[in-house]
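queue> holo job accepted (S-adenosylmethionine)
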Amino acid sequence: MSLSPDIAEDMIRLEALLRGHVAPHLKTKADARILDLACGRCDEAETLIKVVGQEAKADKVKLIGADIRIREILQARERTEKLGAEFLLEDATKLTQHKQLGDEFDMVFLRHQNYWNGPEVWKKIFDTGLAKLNDDGLMVITSYFDKEHQLALEALQKLGAKVVLSKRNEVSRGLDSPGKSVDRWLAVLKKPV
Ligand SMILES: C[S@@+](CC[C@H](N)C(=O)[O-])C[C@H]1O[C@@H](n2cnc3c(N)ncnc32)[C@H](O)[C@@H]1O
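queue> job finished
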């Protein structure tokens, strides 16, 4: 299944954002693991695999996504059949109990984190994500809104994460509500040491 023209353009912009601001912080690896939490239908799967593979000079990149919505997980599986990605129908607050998933991820990605929708749940999702990173790993989030981004960063810092950068995406596509746009903000964080 291919992406709609709008979304395909969002992916071009996201790729540029990741190459410019995330790639310089990636460690070179023979293989790399990405965990995409609350991934929805994971429009960004191919973009993430491409950027991490090229910039970390990794021969093999494995992406695992998780979301609680079955319809989105089925769409993600269908559209990424050829990428070797894996999509789990899982509550991201409970992934510490998921033995096969393991940890040691090089990147934990949360696109359009939804902190406003339930701060307590999202704090747990953030905490789980940080615990899944290896020592050099990066947590990368994007946000639709200014205020929600700020609140998410504050919550992550309270969990001990260190903000490497937080950047407004000046070319993000505007959406239905005022102040909402696609990948409006990007932040890169490291886990507590
Ligand atoms: C704003 S949407 C973003 C979806 C996707 N990352 C994107 O950018 O299109 C938030 C997502 O969080 C997921 N979600 C909310 N609570 C969750 C939980 N406890 N575990 C896993 N996913 C969750 C929702 O199902 C939804 O897909």
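queue> Residues 5-21 form the longest helix (17 residues).
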